[in-house]
Amino acid sequence: SQPTKISLQIHPYGKKRKLMITRDVTAVQLAETMRRDFVANVSHEIRTPLTVLSGFVETMQSLELSEEERQQYLGLMSQQAHRMQTLVNDLLTLSRLEGSPAPGPGEWTGTQELLEHVVQEARGLSQAIASTPHRIEPSANSASFWVSGAKTELISAMSNLMSNAVRYTPGGGRIEPGWRINDEGLAEFYVSDSGPGIAAEHLPRLTERFYRVDRSRSRETGGTGLGLAIVKHVAQRHGGRIDVQSTVGQGTTFTITLPPTRVRTTAPD
Ligand code: ADP
Predict the structure, then answer these.
(1) Structure pTM?
(2) In DSSP terms, which residues pair with 252 in a beta bridge?
(3) Ligand 1 test: best mutation among 212, 217, 233, 252, most atoms within 8 Å of CB?
């Protein structure tokens, strides 16, 4: 639709001047549509596990179950409750990131320490979900320097990329994270995987909330569809960005880039 134009006549010092106020209706409508889509998505994401959960409750109320069956049902119910918890946690994380000011220089953390933390965590996840564990090794070229910002946010962004690599790469696959300083002096955290890759048409939309390439694969592995939206927010709040390069059938590399103000190569005091 066309933008509305509202003209006001103002007369400073008796002189007649015209002030145009332009309100872009298209942008307002778009924001409203996005808000509505978001609410619909959240409702849908909560309704699915809730329906399954209440189904199990009804079954348990109406059937005589053996102890083994009872344990099995309770296990499945607990999975659904866990799924809702993860979703609510991710939603809260997103809203906190959106509503609070950008983190100041904050504390300096060594890239080595950050890397070790997320590698350990990813190995744990791989053991829990893959029949053959992934080969998760920091890149041999990974550089050692210091980055500044909100440490817990940086770790959560790195962890999200690592857990995606584990969740979408078949067991036994290779996952290689690392830090480097690129030619422009920007710090980059990267994770390469030998997974299925992502077709080009999906790449621009990956950081949209609830956007998934393969809905069932995401659900099976406990995905909320919010991980990359969180990563993007963390990167942007630190003055940086997220990028992705992918070749179908070969693998994917996600990169978080931080500006030079957030990097130092000598030990902080
Ligand atoms: P999800 O919780 O579904 O993983 P994300 O926002 O983290 O949500 O990721 C969005 C989508 O991007 C995923 O559903 C998946 O289709 C795709 N994706 C993310 N990381 C990878 C990866 N390393 N390899 C293949 N596909 C990926």
Answers:
(1) 0.87
(2) 193, 246
(3) 212
